[in-house]
Design a protein that fits this description.
CATH topology of the largest domain: SH3 type barrels
Distance between the termini: 99 Å
CATH class of the largest domain: Mainly Beta
Largest sheet: 5 strands, antiparallel
Number of domains: 3
CATH architecture of the largest domain: Roll
Number of strands: 7
Shape: rod-shaped
């Protein structure tokens, strides 16, 4: 297969295909290689090494945002909850995490006694962590 036929203008009258020999195709390949590289070798593309110092501020910003969302928010909420539990006193109206409304009768270190029903004098003892919010008289 030493001859390659090229039909450039197929379908036009009076134009015939031109014949190229294998020597002609080798010359064109060498010419394109020389045009790409200066020393008869194909051009190599090398990426520059990544600069970590340019990316460092972005990592710092992401770390600060993650700290604020994951650690500081819940810790601040726990501090507010602990402060609210410390300020509980007798006759405060509270709501538990289970949704039960009651009035505080007695406050001890590890338990709070709630009066749930005035008519039946129903009382319930809960741990301080079970108190969700203090219900003020304005929200009734």
């Amino acid at each position: 297969m030493s001859n390659i036929w090229i039909l450039a203008a197929a379908g036009q009258e009076g134009i015939e295909g031109t014949e190229l020999t294998s020597e002609d195709t080798q010359v064109t390949t060498e010419q394109t290689t020389r045009a790409e590289g200066s020393n008869n070798q194909p051009a190599k593309e090398t990426a520059p090494p990544p600069n970590i110092w340019k990316q460092l501020p972005f990592f710092v910003i992401i770390f600060v945002v993650m700290y604020m969302l994951l650690f500081r928010g819940p810790k601040k909420k726990q501090q507010q909850q602990a402060k609210m539990i410390e300020t509980l006193k007798k006759n405060d109206r509270v709501r538990t995490i289970g949704g039960i409304l009651g009035t505080i009768i007695d406050v001890k270190d590890n338990e709070i006694t709630l009066k749930i029903d005035e008519a039946n004098n129903t009382k319930m003892k809960v741990i301080p962590g079970a108190i969700s919010t203090v219900v003020s008289e304005e929200t009734k």
